[in-house]
Amino acid sequence: MEGSYNYKYPRPALTTDCVIFGFDGDKVKVLFVKRRDEPFKGKLALPGGFMEIGETLEECAKRELVEETGIEGIKLRESGTLSDVERDPRTRVVSVVYYGLMSPNGMMSEDIVAGSDAESFKWIDVNDVLSGTKLAFDHEKAVRMAFKSLSDSLNREPVAFELLDERFTIKQLQRIYEILLDRTFDRANFHKKMVGDPASAKKLKKNGRKKNTGILTDTGEVMKETKHKPAKYYVFDWQKYKDLMEIEDFNFGF
Amino acid sequence: MEGSYNYKYPRPALTTDCVIFGFDGDKVKVLFVKRRDEPFKGKLALPGGFMEIGETLEECAKRELVEETGIEGIKLRESGTLSDVERDPRTRVVSVVYYGLMSPNGMMSEDIVAGSDAESFKWIDVNDVLSGTKLAFDHEKAVRMAFKSLSDSLNREPVAFELLDERFTIKQLQRIYEILLDRTFDRANFHKKMVGDPASAKKLKKNGRKKNTGILTDTGEVMKETKHKPAKYYVFDWQKYKDLMEIEDFNFGF
DNA sequence: CCAAAAGTGTTCTTTATACACCCATGT
DNA sequence: ACATGGGTGTATAAAGAACACTTTTGG
Fold first, then answer.
1. Element housing A78 (H / E)
2. If you ran DSSP here, which 8-state letter would residue A4 be given?
3. pLDDT of residue A44
4. Within 7 Å: CB of A251 and strand C?
5. pTM higher than 0.90, yes or no?
6. Residue A110's pLDDT is what?
7. Which letter, b or e, does each residue of A119-132 get, where b requires 16 or more Cβ atoms within 10 Å of its Cβ?
8. Do residues B152 and B77 touch, judged by C-beta distance below 8 A?
9. Which residue has the least CA–C1' distance to nucleotide C3?
10. Nearest residue for C26, CA–C1'
11. CA–centroid distance for B223 within its chain
């Protein structure tokens, strides 16, 4: 007997794969595990695995992520499915791709460990992944999908901050925007968009309230031991954000 | 013997469901089929069904759509998954939701017919669906997801035109935007955004080229037998669109 | 003539873009 | 002092919002 579960019609296996993006202060990287077993033994793959019958897809993704990497407590968002007929040499497998975000501190955590199915784990620059690093299965496509989902949500939701520690500099924030949107921004204008333009602020006091305010708040703290003028640390101000959204949509893009 | 397909671990059944949005010139509606069989016999459900082992999810969605409604040749986009454990009373079923768009002419087509599993089909106003019409399974959630995917893509891609016939009036286009984004627009400003501002056009001739041009082209034809000034028919100009996108992103929103 | 909806113009506010300038730190 | 990067100011262009005006049809 082949197995214990019988069905009238053939069913594909269903898996989830997690694309974990991490920002190390300079680059956006993706977390991979080196496969311990065939197929694609020794190749880099996304953490993920088979859905159990009593869980939802998101629960599956969360569980597999913990099992294979130890990562817990981050929000996972769905980005799409992979269903090419020949995508897994073993059997017919359909996979749902989730993505999650980690800050510099999160990336450094000692809690990240390669699980049972994995020999080790590795962070790879997302740009290297997208320009052809060889991965197991169709996981390059998965990263491409997740990266697009992430970029798309950047202008609608405050997702960039999930890639940052609670305190961060404007420079770091700008770096994330530049990587995800694949373009550069004027330093001065980016600053004003995010923290608010002091010039407009003065006008605000005179007239009734206009628009323009940023969504970052100065913490008062600054970077230490820099070779130049120290950068201020900011925090994302949820209250300001909600207030602005009530008046009208705040556009995070340009 | 229960069935002929045996697996070591239990597998959920995998289905696709299609949310077909149609614009009738005034409202955006969603296509449902009345179920011929249990469960949810007699209730309204989205067209869809079980994935076959040798096809991709998108192929499955296309096939099921033809089988159950006769609709063919429209683009389907993925919007998300449904995987609650109790979502189907028969067995564990995970479903992938696709959505497609139909123009007024498409909606009226004689080719739309209820398939074998369906007693009949019915178009229902999307607002009624979202405000609580009772549907089979968790299909209300499916419509909600699809509607959000559609709204989100509206500002990035020229999807609104897939809800319109080749020729259409600005009024119709504006109606679609208003329904999908759940807000109103100033008639005059909407017009200028889409066809281009004649005032700016004059300036363009003088100075070097600035920005601002619309993506619609006047066909020269007008509506007949109106009780007022006849509206012009326009077409979406792919060439203009591509040209604008090369300079920089054209924002379809406001 | 009037009503109704289409289309154009005009003005003002808000954003976007470019770039010049000043500031604080380590060497 | 100066190199380096952080932060502010200012001017211009483009886009958004509000609303008045004009045009074309049917009655």
1. strand A76-82
2. S
3. 97
4. yes
5. yes
6. 92
7. eebebbbbeebeee
8. no
9. B228
10. A227
11. 25
Contact B3 A8 (CB under 8 A): yes
CA of A207 to C1' of C12 (A): 14
Instruction: Kindly state the tokens that stand for B209.
Output: 């080229």
Residues of chain A in contact with residue B87, where contact means CB-CB under 8 angstroms, are none
| Separation in Å, CA A107 to CA A25, A32, A160, A180, A235 | 10, 13, 15, 18, 19
Contact between A6 and B1 using a beta-carbon 8 Å cutoff: yes
Q: For residue B207, what pLDDT band results from cuts at 50, 70 and 90?
A: low
What's the rounded Cα separation, in Å, for the pair B232 and B218? 7
Whether pLDDT at A176 is above 80: yes
pLDDT in tens, B101-121: 999 999 999 999 998 888 999
Q: Rounded to whole angstroms, how far apart are CA atoms A236 and B126? A: 36
Please write the tens of the pLDDT for every residue from A183-241. 999 999 999 999 988 777 666 555 555 565 789 999 999 999 899 999 999 999 998 88
What domains sit in chain B, N to C, each tagged with a CATH number?
Answer: 13-153 (3.90.79.10), 167-245 (1.10.10)
| A83, A99, A184: best to mutate for the B interface, most B CBs within 10 A | A83
Is residue B168 within 8 A of residue B223, CB to CB? The reply is no
Query: For A87, which residue in chain B has the nearest alpha carbon?
Result: B56
d(CA A40, CA A68): 16
- Band the pLDDT of B210: cuts 50, 70, 90: low
The answer, yes or no, to whether residue A1 has pLDDT greater than 60, is: no
Nearest protein residue by Cα to C1' of nucleotide C20:
A188
Place of tokens 């940052």: A164
Residues of A in contact with B14 (CB under 8 A): 11-12, 14, 94
What is the spatial distance between Cα A196 and Cα A216, in angstroms, rounded to a whole number?
8
Q: Which of B1, B6, B57 sits opposite A3 (nearest CB)?
A: B6
Tell me the average pLDDT across B50-62: 98
Neighbouring-strand partners of residue B20: B100
What is the bridge-based pairing of β-strands A44-45 and B44-45?
A: unpaired
**Which chain B residue has its CA at the smallest distance from A96's CA?**
B81
